[in-house]
């Protein structure tokens, strides 16, 4: 215990001075205090395919590790400790957000102590990454296009959980996304969620996406309801980008009662999975796309649905269902439903289901997406 507390003290020193890139060397020096020969931070890449060593620690840990089919990947995908004869891998979780894995070369260990160390390492990565580019350099396996850089810098963490409610999202192509985005906020008992699909691609689309996201946040933080939020976003899109439009789902979930309220602005309806079965038929659209509201002389319609404990909602852009295989066949809603139902039946964590979904979509289109593909999952346990 004294040795572990000394390791904690050394790590805590990084809170007040230092960068993320200083963490590997500090961990390497502190590893003997934890009964380990080495300690290595492995961060997940943007595509969630590899776990990549944060440079500066163990020189032997210089190569990325695949997520699929490795003990390190198992710790990442299950968010549980995995072991071998010589190693321990602990998930690095910032809240519910999966950052990567802490790898310790050790034969025997006190998992309780090591989980505390892993939690502290995750907090340090999350708090230090904004002061330099080491984390970004590690996570990028190819150059990030400017449009994608703009969008990623606008997004919240991919996963968030509070009091039995989780929201988790995925985006592809992760290095060239421009027109899709999502946002959420938990305020009191209400979870606000928005999913957006901007017309076009590239810099023009990312600029419109940036305006849309920030107008959504401004309306939400000003206390506006769904209808006035829709009208505010629509007004600013028409003023700044006349002729452009954005399809969207604007939603609010009461995390206590399960009441779900939403506006579908020219967007595909959410998919509801309950007890392993799909429940479709929700009204969509209930309003014109954002930017086109004046074409109809009526306000957007807010619809209300009552969730039951254990329900799963999936919001998605048309890049998911309209993905095409080599023969031109659409991925489609039926295939999406079957995939999600099968994955959830295995008891997989929601973020892992979404990781597998986006990889399935990319594979279905032979690695070259014709359109941005984004999805967000909301799980409500009640």
TrEMBL record:
Its keywords, alphabetically, are: Hydrolase
Superkingdom per UniProt: Bacteria
Record-linked Pfam families: SpoIIE
- Gene Ontology molecular function terms on file: phosphatase activity
Question: Which SUPFAM superfamilies has this protein been placed in?
Answer: PP2C-like
Gene3D superfamilies in the record: PPM-type phosphatase domain (3.60.40.10)
Residue intervals passing through the bilayer: none
Give the residues annotated as coiled coil.
none
Question: Which residue ranges does the record assign to the PPM-type phosphatase domain?
Answer: 162-380
Q: List the PANTHER family.
A: STAGE II SPORULATION PROTEIN E, STAGE II SPORULATION PROTEIN E-RELATED
The protein depicted here goes by the name: Serine phosphatase RsbU (Regulator of sigma subunit)
- Organism ancestry: Bacteria, Bacillati, Actinomycetota, Actinomycetes, Micromonosporales
């Amino acid at each position: 215990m004294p040795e572990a507390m000394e390791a904690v003290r050394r790590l805590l020193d990084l809170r007040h001075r230092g960068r993320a890139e200083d963490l590997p060397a500090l961990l390497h020096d502190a590893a003997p205090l934890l009964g380990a020969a080495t300690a290595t931070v492995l961060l997940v890449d943007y595509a969630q395919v590899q776990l990549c060593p944060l440079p500066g620690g163990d020189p032997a840990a210089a190569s990325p590790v695949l997520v699929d089919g490795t003990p390190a990947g198992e710790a990442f995908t299950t968010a549980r400790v995995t072991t071998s004869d010589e190693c321990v891998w602990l998930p690095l979780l910032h809240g519910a957000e999966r950052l990567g894995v802490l790898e310790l070369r050790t034969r025997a260990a006190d998992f309780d102590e090591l989980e505390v160390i892993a939690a502290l390492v995750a907090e340090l990565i999350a708090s230090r990454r904004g002061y330099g580019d080491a984390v970004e350099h590690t996570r990028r396996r190819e150059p990030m296009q400017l449009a994608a850089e703009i969008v990623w810098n606008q997004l919240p963490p991919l996963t968030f959980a509070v009091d039995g409610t989780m929201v988790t999202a995925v985006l592809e192509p992760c290095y060239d996304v421009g027109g899709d985005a999502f946002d959420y906020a938990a305020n009191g008992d209400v979870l606000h969620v928005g999913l957006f699909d901007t017309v076009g691609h590239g810099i023009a689309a990312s600029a419109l996406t940036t305006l849309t996201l920030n107008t959504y946040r401004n309306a939400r933080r000003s206390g506006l309801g769904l209808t006035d939020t829709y009208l505010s976003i629509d007004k600013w899109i028409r003023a700044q980008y006349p002729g452009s439009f954005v399809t969207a789902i604007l939603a609010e979930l009461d995390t206590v009662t399960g009441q779900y309220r939403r506006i579908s602005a020219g967007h595909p309806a959410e998919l509801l999975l309950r007890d392993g079965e799909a429940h479709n038929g929700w009204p969509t659209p209930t309003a014109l796309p954002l930017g086109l509201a004046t074409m109809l002389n009526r306000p957007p319609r807010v619809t209300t649905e009552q969730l039951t404990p254990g329900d799963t909602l999936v919001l998605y852009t048309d890049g998911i269902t309209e993905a095409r295989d080599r023969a031109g066949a659409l991925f489609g809603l039926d295939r999406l439903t079957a995939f999600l139902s099968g994955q959830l039946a295995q008891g997989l964590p929601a973020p892992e289901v979404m990781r597998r979904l986006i990889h399935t979509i990319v594979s279905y289109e032979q690695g070259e997406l014709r359109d941005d593909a984004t999805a967000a999952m909301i799980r409500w346990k009640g």
